[in-house]
Fold this sequence. Notes:
This protein is mainly alpha-helical. The protein has helices at residues 5-51, 62-67, 77-87, 94-119, 127-156, 163-200, 202-211. It has a domain at 36-51 and 88-211. Helix 1 runs antiparallel to helix 4, helix 1 runs parallel beside helix 5 (127-156) and helix 3 crosses helix 5 (127-156).
Amino acid sequence: MKGGQPILCGLAAWLLLSIGGCAIGPAGADLASYEPVAERDLLAEAAQAVETAQWPEPESGPALAWLIGGGGERFSKSDAIDYYVDALTPAGARFHALALDADATLEKAARLHAVAASTADAARVSMNDVARVENAIQTLRQHRDIYWASAKALDKAGEPVDDERLSSLRRAFAQMIRDLGDAADALADRVQADRSSVYASPDRIIANRFSDL
């Protein structure tokens, strides 16, 4: 009887560990792993939405066209403006259509700003998140320039253009670009703060001290 006590105690301890592990282990791990992934998915989707436009994306240079077999030709910003102006309808109200497109772009940018602000409070933030917002800012600048140049082209072609509305759109783009820049800075600050806390953590300090022994 006495010889069986260690076996019974060991079995009881094993059962307690098994029950405890099943009850709290996986649930905690799932919450920790899924939240950052969800935040990044939302940020990526919001950034991708800002990058969509009513014209083909201008290429950055002739090297890209050469790589895809374009013979050195490329789709420039000027080509994008011509493409967009030709696509605007109906005649006599083409600037109104342009203004609606610009408003839609600003709405997408506003959503990206909201998601970026939320991501700054996520469990984990990376420099990839910062890069997504910064790339979207560059795209938004390009969209602003194309909208502005297209409006000028419409005016030159004799289409009615509301100068006050155009100036309002330009101010709205400028403000949104500033807001997104602040959001990117906040994300970068969060990444830096996380790195600093890791290097300053007691566990890391102890590990570094032992590594010197």
